[in-house]
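To assess whether ligand presence alters the predicted conformation, the chain was also submitted together with 6R9. Input:
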Amino acid sequence: MSQSQETLSNLLQETRRFAPPAELAETANVTAEAYEEANADRLGFWARQADRLTWSKRWDTVLDWSNPPFAKWFVGGELNVAYNCVDRHVEAGLGDRVAYHWEGEPGDTRTITYAELQREVSKAANALLELGVRKGDRVAIYLPMIPELPISMLACARIGATHSVVFGGFSADALRTRINDAQAKVVITADGGFRRGKPSALKAIVDEALKDDSTPSVERVVVVRRTGEQIAENPRDVWWHDLVDRQSDQHTPEAFDAEHPLYILYTSGTTGKPKGILHTAGGYLTQVAYTHYAVFDLKPETDVYWCSADIGWVTGHSYIVYGPLANGATSVIYEGTPDTPHKGRWWEIIQKYKVTIFYTAPTAIRTFMKWGDDIPAQFDLSSLRVLGSVGEPINPEAYVWYRQHIGGGRCPVVDTWWQTETGAIMISPLPGVTAAKPGAAMRPLPGVVADVVDDQAQSVPNGGGGFLVLKEPWPAMLRTIWGDDERYVKTYWSRFDGLYFAGDGAKRDEDGDIWLLGRVDDVMLVSGHNISTTEVESALVSHPKVAEAAVVGSTDPVTGQAIVAFVIPRGSAGEEVEGEGFVAELRDHVAKTLGPIAKPRQIMIVPELPKTRSGKIMRRLLRDVAENRSLGDVTTLTDSSVMDLIRAKLPSAKPED
Ligand code: 6R9
């Protein structure tokens, strides 16, 4: 990035700091010494974290990096991931501890202890074996947020089958592509799940994906009964309750190699077919367990932890299933949407289960800001002690709102940067150590080596902007793209020699702390200045009447690209937001916050923004709108009618000077 990026970034100065509460700092699981310890001996540090797990055979070598970028961690070691997540806690006398408080959207609940989880996972493992699933086979899992989802994942892990969870909101086409790429032998699904008070029809989508022999690898489909809706039955189908309930609840886990494939998870990206990100057993479990313990300061005896993500995304894999269970945590799982049956549902869940650690995404936080402060205020959230954020850069205003209105001003907020590919959290404050800045992911965690570099791969000085890279391999790193080593090398390791390129823009502030600026494809070039969408969006969201903003660069004959903003007003802003006055006020506000160069050419007031199903803003579609093109691929949108709502707003939103 050019020098001009620096000038702009420095205008958005953040002076607020939130030091850890004294009590948390005193009792924190991880202190500042961990950074020094890892710096002094990075591999020794990771070996000590791996020792928190139970291995059937200890490794000989911590890392084999003789054939980069193909890493092998804990070479020669053997373990069973499901044993580590379940059985060992039961053996340690913790069988009565709750693993999951599950809350269905209609209000039905299920509490599962570690002892019950051990029986359920064993039965499901025996069922998969009966269906002929063996070590190394792939199993596709297409389930709603019900207990059978983690149970199925753990059953696969237990017998050495590799799971591929496909998010329940994906279409038949998306499901078919993923099943075929992984050559899945079995599909586990449900008749449906509950979303917004209605049963969804999952099984019909599976039938559509599998029709006319278009997925030849699939031998059987296991169907969980969740909604009780009528479904079409097929000879290859078997009901979960017919198959699993009659199995023995005893199963002896076998140890697998540390590099045994644990799961494949597809990321869509902007171009080409989805990439099957491959994670393996030992390194992955080591890092998710460590980061869950360190970043959330988990005290498994007393904490109640809730990550609101869907298990269909990597956040759910690492921080609902593998990390928390490896640590023997008690977690909450919620099936449905935050506004069913009312907009306080999440806060009601926190109050009910006395949740102490809560992990969610900026998109959710901004939605709650839009709905108004009075909603969380109706609930008792005093049990909370640590809050986390993931998925997108968190705008400083959203951060402060989250801290204040959810955390009561007393809970540290950890902004955690990572990716499906990294498997685990990489950059984040530590709640008992870091004086966090709202909007900054701060520093790489102990054992992680990250940097911000320019296009010549040189580290930028403090105050500079550039590309985020990872300089050393880490235990939970992806091992390859399933079936496509060449694409793995090309996508992540070719832009900078010997460095992992994350695809994100970042800056380093005057203190050396890292701020994420969004995907590099989203950076705008205005009159020769590189301007990050994230910074303009944060400036807009810092206006008291703005709940959410998305910014794109639109082709402009004069400036090359011009900034076009889409803005959702806050719930309380009411009528005031209609009309020219408000738009002018916002443009001035951006000019004051960031400088005149960042003033949007055009601002459109819209009711919704297009988001991917994991909650990330789809700027590509907004660029199509801004440039008056027909829309590109909308299949990953949560709700495609959002684009019609935005289009309907267009005539009134005329460009200004
Ligand atoms: C975990 C997850 C990865 C991309 C990543 C980045 C964005 C995630 C972030 C963040 C800024 C954070 N991202 N966390 N950007 N601050 N705390 O979201 O994985 O779905 O693979 O997305 O998400 O752009 O490159 P995934």
